Amino acid sequence: MESAIPPHLQTARSRHRRVPDDYAPPYPSFVARHKPAVASVIMAYFGVQFRGEPTAAATGALAQIAKRFAGENGPTHWDRAQYVDQAGFTNVVSVAYWDDAGRFDAWFGDAREAWTCSTASDGVGRFIEVLRPHVARYETLFSSLGRPEGVAVLADGMSGEVQEHAYWGGMRDRIPLSQTDAMTPGGEPHIIRDGARIRVVAHDNLCLIRSGQDWSDTETSERKMYLDDVEPVLREGMDFLRDDGVPIGCYANRYMRVVDADGRLTEKSYGQSWWKSLAALERWAESHPTHVRIFGAAMKYLSTLGPSAKLRLYHEVTVAAADEQFFEYLGCHERTGMLNAVQLAAAPSS
């Protein structure tokens, strides 16, 4: 049994884990392992927003960013997903990952200018949401091996079975920084206007989670059980966070279906949400009725199927320092992403 925290990031603890040293989890889970030389990773979300069917401008923007991803210094991995938000707009989000800050910096300047150029007036909203956390500030978790997702695609490999999972608090215990830091948020979100572009300055220790499901390997009875008994409960929780999450610390939530290169829906989905703090995310996970129902449905499903379950689950959770964040929006409605965390009418000018 391994620790989720790799040896080169382990340090003397001033904050204790929630479980004793002899804790044995009831089922196996695994984490991504980067090479020790990797100091940070970059997670960059590029979104387009429109009503109804995709316009020529939206389709062109998606083709443009895919071409840039394939160019010099582009990401090691990227994927695309879509959802309809609380205002009825379709959002198509391409998320790209780097593990070399120099390559990202060389790529990002021109890409950012092209994506949210302040002279754009094609009726399509665009946004960029970037975290570039030190490796001590995020964690991953996978229910099975063989198909990494998200930032784990960049990893050197996967761990053996890890100890810190299957208990409330495991998410925090897998983040290396949690050994010495409570990761408490500091400051309040505000905006800076740059022509038509709006930049959001969030705060220290902002939290991001991407939590995914892959049912492509399931067979008839298991697929029916997931789609009939689990997915509707998951959707209910995701919709709650989307529509009513702000009072409990969730600034924004997207429950998205992954699409292929031709824009067709796949049998993969993920929730992606911005939280005021890891503690707020933990409180929702541990005690809110919407997540209690999700947890109950998932546990019934997994206990019924046992080791034969072919549903794949994963997540990545990041707690980012203030200088590891970048948010920019152009032509988007005011509840888009981190815009939902601020009151535009009271925002300062640049």
Protein described:
- 24% of the residues lie in helices and 28% in strands.
- Helix 4 packs antiparallel against helix 6 and helix 5 packs across helix 6.
- It is built from six helices and 14 strands.
- It has a twelve-stranded antiparallel sheet. Strands 1-7 form a two-stranded antiparallel ribbon.
- The relative contact order is 0.20.
- The C terminus is likely disordered.
- The protein is of the alpha+beta class.
- The longest helix is centred in the middle third of the chain and has 25 residues.
Whole-angstrom Rg: 20 Å
Strand content: 25-35%
Helix percent reads: 10-25%
Sum up the overall morphology in one term. Answer: globular
Query: Using DSSP, what is the number of strands?
Result: 14
Distance between the termini: 52 Å
One letter per element, helices H and strands E, the order comes to EEHEEHEEEHEEEHEEHHEE
Helix/sheet category = alpha+beta
> Residue ranges: pLDDT <50 for 5 or more in a row?
344-350
The pLDDT mean sits at 92
Main sheet strand line-up: 6-13-10-12-11-3-4-2-5-14-9-8
- Main beta sheet: 12 strands, antiparallel
Instruction: Count helical runs.
Output: 6
Pfam family, one: Dehydratase_hem
InterPro entries: OXD
Keywords: Heme, Iron, Lyase, Metal-binding
Family: Belongs to the heme-containing dehydratase family.
